[in-house]
């Protein structure tokens, strides 16, 4: 995998072998970061279901101040740490070795809030709406921030959940990005 923009543009990062993780495609990542670019410098980012960590590492390359990577697969977490170390970004990252539900509870209890929350569960994940509800209820998204869910194009997500409202969708092949903002 390659970093597509920012300070580390063109640098290669490792990805876990096997099919347990599904890295975000380069085309979709470009669309994502073209949309998020104005809000990234200095942002706090949550990469939920981080997998290979490509999205969070790209965010750091493009000026995010800090990324919290949540991933329960220990092999994937080791690869993320190797990539962060090789780029000198370890001080700007926190790795949380938990499943999404436990991590959200931990981060909520710590009072953590984020400018960007990126959620990329396995396509077979059936709890998208419940997960969005947990994030909304925890009030983890800063004012003006964006929650982005990567999902299979046939998976329907709610227009609104709690204080979150879908404001945009982007489709690339079999994948959609659904962008949510907090209602004020």
Write the layout of secondary structure elements.
Blueprint: H1 26-36, E1 44-48, H2 54-61, E2 66-70, H3 74-87, E3 93-96, H4 100-109, E4 114-119, H5 128-137, E5 141-152, E6 160-161, E7 164-172, E8 175-182
Parallel strand pairs: 1-2, 1-4, 2-3, 4-5
Antiparallel strand pairs: 5-8, 6-7, 7-8
Concise structural overview:
This protein has 184 residues and is α/β, with parallel strands linked by helices.
Plain-language structure description:
- The chain has 184 residues and is α/β, with parallel strands linked by helices.
- The chain has a single domain (6-13, 23-182), classed as Vaccinia Virus protein VP39 (Rossmann fold, 3-Layer(aba) Sandwich).
- It contains five helices and eight strands.
- The protein has helices at residues 26-36, 54-61, 74-87, 100-109, 128-137, and strands at 44-48, 66-70, 93-96, 114-119, 141-152, 160-161, 164-172, 175-182.
- An eight-stranded mixed sheet has the order 3-2-1-4-5-8-7-6.
- The chain is globular.
How is the largest sheet built, in terms of strand order? 3-2-1-4-5-8-7-6
Instruction: Please state the structural category.
Output: alpha/beta
What's the CATH class label? Alpha Beta
So what's the overall shape? globular
Per DSSP E runs of 2 or more residues, the count of β-strands stands at: 8
Count structural domains. 1
H/E element order = HEHEHEHEHEEEE
């Amino acid at each position: 995998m390659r970093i597509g923009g920012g300070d580390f543009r063109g640098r290669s990062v490792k990805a876990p072998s096997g099919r347990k993780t599904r890295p975000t495609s380069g085309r979709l990542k470009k669309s994502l970061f073209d949309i998020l670019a104005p809000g990234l410098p200095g942002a706090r980012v949550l990469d939920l279901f981080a997998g290979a960590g490509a999205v969070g590492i790209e965010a750091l390359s493009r000026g995010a101040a800090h990324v919290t990577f949540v991933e329960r697969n220990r092999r994937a977490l080791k690869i993320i740490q190797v990539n962060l170390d090789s780029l000198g970004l370890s001080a700007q990252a926190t790795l949380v070795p938990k499943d999404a539900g436990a991590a959200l509870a931990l981060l909520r209890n710590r009072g953590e809030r984020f400018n960007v929350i990126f959620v990329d569960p396995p396509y077979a994940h059936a709890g998208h709406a419940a997960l969005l509800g947990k994030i909304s209820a925890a009030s983890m998204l800063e004012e003006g921030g964006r929650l982005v869910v990567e999902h299979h194009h046939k998976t329907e997500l709610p227009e609104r959940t709690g204080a979150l409202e879908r404001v945009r969708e982007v489709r690339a092949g079999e994948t959609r990005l659904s962008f949510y903002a907090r209602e004020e």
